[in-house]
# Entry
Amino acid sequence: MLVATFYTPNADGATWGTNPYLAFDLVQNGAGSVNANIYGLWWDYGDHSIPLDPIDYDAERTVLDQYCRKLTFPATGLVGLARGNGGANTEIEVKFPTMMATPAFTGDSATYLQVNGTALNAISFDYISQQSARMIGTLSSGTLAGNAVGICNVTTGNTWSVLVDVGF
# Structure
């Protein structure tokens, strides 16, 4: 007896389509051992569809990453360069591999990020293109001088992730 539970990816705001399809392929060799190949495919019957062929895994990963990708930065990892405006807000360019269309962003807590050692307490995204976006970070204290450049990185002991999602 084979029992399986089917889960769709956990991505807030993502449209993973209707009528998901799951295929099981069980193969037994002469020694009695069994190999199980399981393919999970999602598609959307609306205006767009994701072209999937479950046999070519590397090509599929490349295609799927153009629709939805989670970027994870390690502790003390560089997120981008920050440009000051003389106030509490800084502009940080976040780059990512080219997406299929202009994506939406969902980021972890701003408190996991810092600019020149000063924690951020809020972030937002704008000027989003298929391969970069501007992140506006609000410093928890102090300012970054106008046109001064700072380093935006992840605080020690934390990781920071952002979900880049086209939403087809």
Q: What stands out?
A: Residues 69-165 form a domain with the Immunoglobulin-like fold (CATH 2.60.40).
